[in-house]
């Protein structure tokens, strides 16, 4: 498996779920990557190196507060990137 940040998976999942529901100026790949980066920089990383560690960490992250924190970080990141895209419109 190698070194893996479980939070990246969660941010990606939430981003792809909420992005179509929000009024976003641009949904290009660059903007999506910027959104993910901003959200990840505002969340605590959770690194794992084995499948067993991945399963354990994933089980520990299945709670309402964790989900709310990820959703809040992604939503704020969408707003930040949407107001300051790093490419021409």
Give a topology summary.
Layout: E1 4-5, H1 6-18, H2 29-41, E2 47-48, H3 51-60, H4 64-83
Antiparallel strand pairs: 1-2
Helix pairs in contact: 1-2, 1-4, 2-4
Characterize the structure shown.
Helices cover 63% and strands 4% of the residues. Strands 1-2 form a two-stranded antiparallel ribbon. The chain has 89 residues and is mostly helical. It has helices spanning 6-18, 29-41, 51-60, 64-83, and strands at 4-5, 47-48. Helix 2 crosses helix 4.
Radius of gyration equals: 14 Å
Strand order within the widest beta sheet: 1-2
Give me the strand/helix succession: EHHEHH
Mean of all residue-level pLDDT scores: 91
Question: Which ranges are low-confidence, i.e. pLDDT below 50, for 5 or more consecutive residues?
Answer: none
- End-to-end Cα distance, whole Å, is 39 Å
| Global outline | elongated
Report the strand count.
Answer: 2
Number of helices: 4
How much helix, percentage-wise, in residues?
55-70%
Q: Main sheet, how many strands, which sense, barrel?
A: 2 strands, antiparallel
Provide the β-strand percentage band: under 5%
Structural class: mainly alpha
